[in-house]
Amino acid sequence: MKRNIEIIQNLYRQMPEPKVVVAVGACACSGGSSPGPTTSRAGSTKVVPVDVYVPGCAARPESIIDGVVQGIAALEEKRKKTA
Question: Which of 12, 40, 9 is nearest to 27 (CA)?
Fold first, then answer.
């Protein structure tokens, strides 16, 4: 588990700025409800900064699309701030 977190953090650091993270599903957003090695336990926020949360277990397709649209808007805002 710790190795997976390190890999995700390393990938996040390598992404060019500006970057946006969209957490999809209950497990990604909050760490899930059941303890064990298959859950993230901490949620995405403990691993990398999250800009958009898409709730659900499993997340509905229209919710995922809405999350991507929100992510694009967040990316545009970040681009404006860096320009």
Answer: 40
Please name the amino acid found at residue 59: A
Contact yes or no for 79/17 (Cβ under 8 A): no
- CB neighbours of residue 20 within 10 Å: 19
Closest alpha carbon to 52 in 76, 37, 68: 68
**Quick check: 40 pLDDT over 50?**
no
The separation between CA 48 and the C-alpha centre of its own chain, rounded to angstroms, equals 7
Q: pTM of this prediction?
A: 0.77
Cβ atoms of 50 and 44 within 8 Å: the answer is yes
